């Protein structure tokens, strides 16, 4: 019986562990191995190049551009997919009495659509010359800038398309979190005549922290993966890598140019950067919560 | 969350089961097939892009050839997607038997995959290579040769760039179509249209390759490559890009991704579009104006020269009986009637002499006059530049140069550095 109890938990974990090993851990280790070679994914020989691929990640001007773009993407995605949904969910929860259900549904609908379809529709709507938005701009005397020719504008547009898809999901998560805060605490603040902003800042936000952290991490980690689809459909990273990011650039190197080594080095670097980001995030937030 | 993981787990188990079942199926079908040889044909044609025609041809072949059964497999994401799948197929040892290979992948395919050349197949199974010489011109065959001048496959889909024009706009702003024979004429017309209407004059396709841009450079007497080395950073190459850059800078030409550019042409916001003939049906269906196509322009004092687009059929079968079946299948696909059916279903031009001369094709062209300039351009077509080594990276270097120049970079230095980058890898 005793040994059974010791083995059983591992047995339960085995399926997940096995899948995780096969589809996550082994590929990551293999990617790490590949990052030291020059290989085209198919040739029988792999040329060992040592750290060259890693050096190129940081010295190649295109890679540098892509890394900086990635940074902008993350900032923008954090604002669009985390901060704004949070603010809206607070408004819906505490400042609007009616129609909460309707808002939930309306905001959530885009999450059900395929991002490829969404990207194609937006590519048409936002066509800088012939789309309906360009038409409205023209009619009201403005000129819609040709955002496909500007890296910065293309990044904003791609983030907005991602936002269209992700917003509702994050909004629902945050709203549900807010709903689980005990009502008696909120009622108490009303009786004590504490201003709403103080209630939100000092009570609601700290109490909703676990959900918020989850959404925050989700935004950082999944955001770039979501951006990949519209990038691939609309700009393919252009103009001149202006709207590319590390994920898209890794894909380009790996599966368009077949530069497996460079792609692997980029992937491992991204992996490490994200690991550090998440570590800092968790440590920072958890460290702070101990004092509260 | 738990149910989500459980569902994912179920899905994965399902996939694994299916993999096992299918692996079982194919191995049994191979061993049991004593009289019937099974072969697979990999293509890139989605249902909307000729996929139905592929199925139709395969069905007809299977009906008329009782001892061979062909299974067609669609590969998403065009030739690039097919190459990716071919790589995993090669790694697992289960390769297809007949494969469509895009011209840009010519050398990459030839140097990394095992295949049987059509010449070997013809000699081995027919006793001579009469089939090849009878059906294809030397020019057409040159499209399918690798850097070592070896015939890798047989040309299957052919396309050429043409200049599509919006006749309503040209008429409205007094542009004579005859003046559009030269790029200088196109520039002048675009300027005039832009000045009078504020609309863009021209759009040149900007997909993930520089096919159209190479056509412009070639039509200014430039070479893209010479003896396996990049050679486009010449005064002629620069001259071609100079005109293009000028037009983008003064907003007479639209600079935008391909889908959006074509959308703008079809909506009548751009007067001319330089793109592949394969866009003809899209334009015919979508445009509400009188659209037509003319032969690709050249620079004054030069001749029109364009790289050919499309793909070839290569035999990737390894087993001799399957190679024989694959060759039979290819011969069927190159029959005049099959080629014309194929052309009608996809918008590509048929590759064989007899198909181009057939009454059926001529009738078809009669109904679709946009195809006329494309057919006439075939004499002026050369193989799509494919560098012997690192060809895909070379193409990317040319894409980068194009994007930089269109964003205003110095033409001469940009082309030179791209050329040096390519040549350093050869």
What order do the helices and strands come in, and which of them pair?
The complex is a heterodimer of chains A (292) and B (426).
Chain A (H helix, E strand, L loop, with lengths): L1 H33 L2 E2 L8 E2 L3 H8 L1 H34 L5 H9 L6 H11 L6 H8 L11 H29 L3 H9 L4 H12 L1 H27 L10 H11 L3 H30 L3
Antiparallel strand pairs in A: 1-2
Chain B lengths: L1 H31 L4 E7 L7 H14 L3 E7 L3 H15 L5 E5 L3 H7 L5 H9 L3 H6 L2 H5 L11 E6 L1 E6 H6 L10 H15 L2 E5 L6 H8 L6 E2 L2 E2 L4 H15 L3 E2 L3 H9 L3 E7 L3 H7 L4 E5 L10 E2 L1 E7 L4 H14 L2 H11 L6 H5 L1 H9 L3 H7 L3 E2 L8 H16 L4 H14 L2
Parallel strand pairs in B: 1-2, 1-3, 6-9, 6-10, 12-14
Antiparallel strand pairs in B: 3-13, 4-13, 5-10, 5-11, 7-8
Write a concise keyword list for the protein shown above.
heterodimer; A: 292 residues; mainly alpha; MetI-like fold; two-stranded antiparallel sheet; 12 helices; 2 strands; 76% helix; B: 426 residues; alpha/beta; D-Maltodextrin-Binding Protein, domain 2; 2 domains; 5-stranded mixed β-sheet; 20 helices; globular
Structure, explained:
The complex is a heterodimer of chains A (292) and B (426). By secondary structure, chain A is mostly helical. Chain A has a single domain (58-289), classed as MetI-like (MetI-like fold, Orthogonal Bundle), CATH 1.10.3720.10. Helix content of chain A is 76%, strand content 1%. Chain A has 12 helices and 2 strands, in the order αββααααααααααα. Chain A has a two-stranded antiparallel sheet. Chain A starts with a helix and ends with a helix. By secondary structure, chain B is of the alpha/beta class. Chain B folds into 2 domains: 33-159 and 309-374, D-Maltodextrin-Binding Protein, domain 2 (3-Layer(aba) Sandwich), CATH 3.40.190.10; 161-307 and 389-424, D-Maltodextrin-Binding Protein, domain 2 (3-Layer(aba) Sandwich), CATH 3.40.190. In chain B, the strands form 4 sheets. Chain B has a 5-stranded mixed beta sheet with strand order 2-1-3-13-4. Chain B has a 5-stranded mixed beta sheet with strand order 9-6-10-5-11. Chain B has a two-stranded antiparallel ribbon with strand order 7-8. In chain B, β1 (37-43), α2 and β2 (68-74) form a beta-alpha-beta unit. Classes of the chains: A mainly alpha (292), B alpha/beta (426). At the A-B interface, α1 of A face α1, α3, α12 and α19 of B.
């Amino acid at each position: 019986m005793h040994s059974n109890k010791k083995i059983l938990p591992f047995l339960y974990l085995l399926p997940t562990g096995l899948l995780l090993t096969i589809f996550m851990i082994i590929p990551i280790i293999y990617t790490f191995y590949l990052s030291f070679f020059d290989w085209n994914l198919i040739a029988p020989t792999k040329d060992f190049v040592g750290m060259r691929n890693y050096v190129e990640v940081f010295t190649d001007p295109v890679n540098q551009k892509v890394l900086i773009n990635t940074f902008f993407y993350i900032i923008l995605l954090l604002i669009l997919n985390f901060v704004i949904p949070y603010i809206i969910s607070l408004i819906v929860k505490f400042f609007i009495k009616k129609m909460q259900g309707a808002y939930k549904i309306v905001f959530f609908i885009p999450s059900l659509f395929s991002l490829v379809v969404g990207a194609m529709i937006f590519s048409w709507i936002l066509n800088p010359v012939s789309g309906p938005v360009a038409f409205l701009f023209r009619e009201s005397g403005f000129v819609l800038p040709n955002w496909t020719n500007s890296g910065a504008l293309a990044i904003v547009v791609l983030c907005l398309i991602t936002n269209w898809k992700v917003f509702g999901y994050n909004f629902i998560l945050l709203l549900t979190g807010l709903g689980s805060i005990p009502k008696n605490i909120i009622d108490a603040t009303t009786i004590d005549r504490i201003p709403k902003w103080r209630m939100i800042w000092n009570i609601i936000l700290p109490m909703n922290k676990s959900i918020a952290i989850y959404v925050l991490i989700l935004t950082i980690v999944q955001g770039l993966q979501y951006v990949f689809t519209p990038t691939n459909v609309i700009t393919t990273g252009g103009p001149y890598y202006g709207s590319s990011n590390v994920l898209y650039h890794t894909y380009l190197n790996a599966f368009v140019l077949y530069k497996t080594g460079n792609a692997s080095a980029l992937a491992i670097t991204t992996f490490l950067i994200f690991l550090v980001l998440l570590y800092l995030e968790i440590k920072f937030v958890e460290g702070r919560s101990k004092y509260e | 969350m738990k149910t989500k993981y459980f569902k994912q787990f179920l899905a994965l188990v399902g996939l694994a089961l299916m993999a096992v079942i299918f692996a079982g199926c194919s191995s049994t079908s191979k061993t049991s097939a004593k009289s019937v040889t099974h072969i697979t044909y990999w293509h890139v044609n989605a249902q909307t892009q000729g996929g139905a025609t592929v199925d139709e041809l395969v069905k007809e072949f299977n009906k008329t050839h009782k001892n061979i059964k062909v299974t067609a497999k669609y590969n998403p994401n065009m030739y690039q997607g097919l190459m990716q799948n071919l790589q995993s197929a090669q790694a697992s040892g289960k390769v297809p038997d007949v494969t469509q290979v895009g011209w840009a992948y010519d050398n990459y395919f030839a140097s990394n995959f095992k295949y049987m050349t059509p010449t070997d197949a013809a000699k081995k199974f027919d006793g001579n290579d009469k089939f090849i010489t009878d059906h294809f011109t030397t020019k057409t065959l040159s499209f399918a040769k690798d850097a070592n001048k070896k015939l890798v496959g047989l040309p299957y889909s052919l396309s050429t760039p043409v200049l599509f024009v919006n006749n309503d706009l040209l008429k409205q702003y007094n542009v004579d179509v005859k003046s559009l024979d030269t790029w200088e004429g196109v520039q002048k017309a675009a300027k005039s249209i832009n000045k009078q209407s504020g609309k863009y004059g021209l759009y040149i396709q900007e997909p993930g390759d520089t096919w159209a841009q190479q056509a412009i450079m070639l039509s200014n007497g430039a070479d893209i490559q010479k003896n396996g080395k990049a050679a486009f950073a010449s005064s002629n190459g620069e001259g071609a890009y100079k005109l293009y850059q000028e037009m983008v800078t003064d907003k007479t030409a639209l600079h935008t991704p391909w889908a959006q550019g074509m959308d703008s042409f079809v909506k009548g916001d751009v007067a001319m579009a330089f793109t592949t003939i394969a866009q003809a049906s899209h334009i015919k269906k979508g445009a509400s104006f009188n659209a037509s196509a003319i032969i690709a322009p050249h620079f004054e004092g030069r001749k029109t020269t364009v790289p050919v687009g499309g793909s070839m059929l290569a035999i990737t079968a390894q087993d001799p009986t399957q190679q024989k079946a694959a060759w039979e299948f290819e011969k069927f696909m190159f029959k005049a009637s099959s080629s014309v059916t194929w052309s009608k279903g996809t918008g590509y031009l048929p590759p064989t002499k007899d198909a181009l001369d057939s009454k059926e094709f001529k009738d078809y062209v009669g109904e679709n006059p946009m195809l006329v300039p494309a057919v006439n351009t075939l004499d002026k077509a050369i193989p799509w530049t494919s560098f012997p080594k690192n060809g895909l990276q070379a193409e990317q270097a040319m894409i980068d140069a194009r994007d930089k120049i269109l964003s205003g970079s110095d033409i001469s230095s940009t082309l030179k550095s791209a050329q040096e980058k390519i040549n350093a890898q050869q």
